[in-house]
């Protein structure tokens, strides 16, 4: 939290609860906040509005003082944000011209900004990389576009035959190239390999360099800026002290 200079943990959990008459189960989503190295306990945020729109099967992204998640909705990308300073949820307007992206989009952090990586299939097949310039104003910039219908090199065309949308991980080489994680389709003979492959894409030239497959059975790679802070007590004890986890 840039305002209070405190590190916070945000826990979102959900459960089903039966009505008092026992006839129906109801879905409940709960959010709790914990300040690292504080003597306090888990507490609710200032506002839980829009909490129910968070897709809990999506990974959160931290950038620009907010946590971001994909939200429910099929017509256009839905993005839900949580301000660590105000401790409130809100719906963030998606980038312009996102029609056709549908559910084929992902969120990441690039260069300290929220990144939306969208894949459109109609009328053309392309990948768009949008960066959030200003959260408060909801202003996005189109960083680059990968047109898969153009005569791109073979390595770039690999982006179009992977099983799921590629995931941008970081800017590299003084921000000249973008590191991508791609989940590739493997043949029966290749099952000993990891399905994850790394590419370095240069928006200026349109070229992509294959950096090879990751080690066998490795988990999807993520890059984080190193920031080590003592939690004051074991992480497992902090999580288990949550009222929602005890329930």
Automatic annotation (TrEMBL):
Record Pfam families: FBA_3
Boundaries of every F-box associated beta-propeller type domain copy: 4-143
Annotated InterPro entries: F-box-assoc_dom_typ3 (IPR013187), F-box-assoc_interact_dom (IPR017451), SCF_F-box_component (IPR050796)
PANTHER family assigned: BNACNNG10540D PROTEIN, F-BOX PROTEIN CPR30-LIKE
NCBIfam families recorded: F_box_assoc_1 (TIGR01640)
UniProt protein name: F-box associated beta-propeller type 3 domain-containing protein
Organism, scientific name: Aegilops tauschii subsp. strangulata
High-level lineage: Eukaryota, Viridiplantae, Streptophyta, Embryophyta, Tracheophyta
